[in-house]
Every structure is written in C-alpha cells, then in structure tokens.
Amino acid sequence: MIKTESKIDIVYLWVDGNDPLWRYKRQCSLQQLSHDHIDDLAPYSNVEGRFRDNDELRYSLRALEYFFPDHGHIYIITDAQVPIWLQSSERVTVIDHQDLIPKSHLPTFDSGNIESYIHRIQGLSERYFYFNDDVFFGSPVNVHDWFWDGGIYVTWSDEPLVSDEPMRPDATSLENACRLSNEWFESESRSTQAKRSPRPSVDESYKHTFRTFAHSPRPMMRSLLFELERAVPELFGAVRSTVFRAWNKPTIVSDFVMRWALASGQAKLREHSHLYISTGAGGHQDQLDLLSSMLGKIEFFCINDTMDDAGSDDPRFENVRSTLALMFPLASSFEK
C-alpha cells in the first residue's frame, strides 16, 4: 500500500531547437569548447534530433491529462523559452535553467546535466514523474504500478545487453551509464566504509545487470535524490560539469539513481508494457501504425527522434505529428 499524501507532480524537460537565439547560443558554446572537451563529446550529443521540437510536449500533455487526470503540479524546465501554444495556468510552472542551475554552470545543452537538478525544484512533491517530452502515458495510470510505500518500480528496456567493458567513446550514453554504474558498485565493494566518506547503505548481495532502463516516465522520490546528492557528490559534480553530453560523464538520473534504488531496497523491478519507436530506423511507419492500435493497452511509449540532421521537410516528422493528432485529437486544458 502507498501512504496517503499529496498528488504526484510532473516534471518535463523541453527545448525548441528551432529558436534562432537558442541556436546561436548553442553554436557559440560549441565553438568555445576546448580541444579536450570536443574529444569528450558523446555520439549524437549535438545533432538536430536531440533538440528538435516536433510538438511532442503538446501531445504528451494531452496523454497525461487523458490517462492521469489526477496528477499534481506540472513543471516545464526550459532555456529561456516557452511553448507558443502553452496556456498560462496555476497548474503549470515554467522554470528557466538559470532559476534552477547555478549560473556558473550555464549554458548547458546536456539533459543529463539538467535533470540532475530536478529534485531541487522548490515545492516539488516527494513523489514525482520525470518525463522527457518524447515520452507518453499510453493507458490509464494506476499509481500503485509505479510507486509502492517507500519506493518505486523500474523497467528494463528491450535493447540488447550492454557489454561488460569500460566506458567507450563510441557507445551510447545509456550504455556508458550502465558501465559507469557498474564501475561505481565494483569500486564500492572493494572499499571499506572506514576509508571512504559515508555512503548510503547498499545490499552486498546486489548484482549488476547489464541492461539499460526503458525510455519511460521516471517515477522518482525527492528524498532519494537528495540522499544520493549528499552521498555521491563526485558523480553529480561530474555530470554537472558538461556543456554537451560527454561519453565519459554519462547520465546518472536515468541509470545510477535507479540501480542504487534497486541495491538499497527502494526500487523493485516491474515489467510495464511499453513500446519504443526510433524514428530514424527502417519501418518506423509500421511501428506508428502498431502504436495507434495499441493505445489504451500499453502503459507508456516513447517516440525518439533519431533522424539526427534530417531536413525540416522530411515527411517522417509529419507522420509522427499526424499519428499523435489521431491518437490524442482533443486539446488539453494546457493549450491556448
């Protein structure tokens, strides 16, 4: 059972990669990187697909309101931007990067960096969902499928196993995040508590699993993030040092946090039904058609823009928008 408490808040990261002022800032930031930092860039860290807005947030909010109407407050974290269609509402707060992240650490274009600050949002509920804007609920939400009294449920992805080797410059950020977590747990097991700063309690029987986590709504607990921020400041400090995503400083919120929660008994595995669509992969239209037929039967889905530097007139963008419009035709109360 889950104890009675306040409603579960929702946090989104969002960016409009077409904004000319934002694009200029991004270009200048890239030019200012040192040679060493250029070499640290992760694959796909600065492609258009990472920042492109194809109206995903609009439809994710429609799905949220349709499938989880009893949600709490919505926070949208942006970089001096606001969606032009967003309706001013007491139920939505737009948070600028500079109001959440120290100005000395800005600008940053790495979602792994930005998401490491989410738990610091003033007034955020203890339990919350963290969303990338390309993630959607796909059926009515039962809170007990995501949270239990004192913990969260997490889900593995359907991706192939990650190889058991050190982090690699040519690997994806999620693969390297898996490896980084393994390195930390192995290092921790070799060290005694007397030789290290106080660490959170980790079950000695915990065994690392070389799988990545699903692209899902992330159920999170604010207290867990604060505890980890105090306990492993070196990991938070590393990811917060990035301007663009770096292969050797991969995301921790979308990997390490959940692995540590599993190791400390604050997370349990659950197989949520879901679908992941890579728009740059062959047969993506067939997947979109499959998604339409499965609406209401899967708990969540992700439509990941992997078209990298495709032109704005690529018909695949319209395919995604038209599919989402057919699935969620009614405007939410968050739209003008």
Write a brief structural summary.
The chain is α/β, with parallel strands linked by helices.
Task: Walk me through this protein's architecture.
- The chain has one domain: Spore Coat Polysaccharide Biosynthesis Protein SpsA, Chain A (Alpha-Beta Complex).
- Helices cover 32% and strands 14% of the residues.
- Strand 6 and strand 7 form a beta hairpin.
**Helical element count?**
11
Helical percentage: 25-40%
N-C termini distance: 38 Å
Oligomer: single chain
Question: What's the domain count?
Answer: 1
What is the residue-mean pLDDT, rounded to a whole number? Answer: 92
Report the CATH architecture.
Alpha-Beta Complex
Structural descriptors:
336 residues; alpha/beta; Spore Coat Polysaccharide Biosynthesis Protein SpsA, Chain A; three-stranded mixed beta sheet; 11 helices
Topology, element by element:
Layout: E1 9-13, H1 20-31, H2 35-40, H3 48-51, H4 56-67, E2 74-78, E3 92-96, H5 111-115, E4 127-132, E5 135-137, E6 147-148, E7 151-154, H6 173-190, E8 218-221, H7 222-231, H8 233-239, H9 256-263, E9 267-269, E10 274-278, H10 284-294, E11 300-304, H11 315-327
Parallel strand pairs: 1-2, 1-4, 2-3, 7-9, 10-11
Antiparallel strand pairs: 4-8, 5-11, 6-7
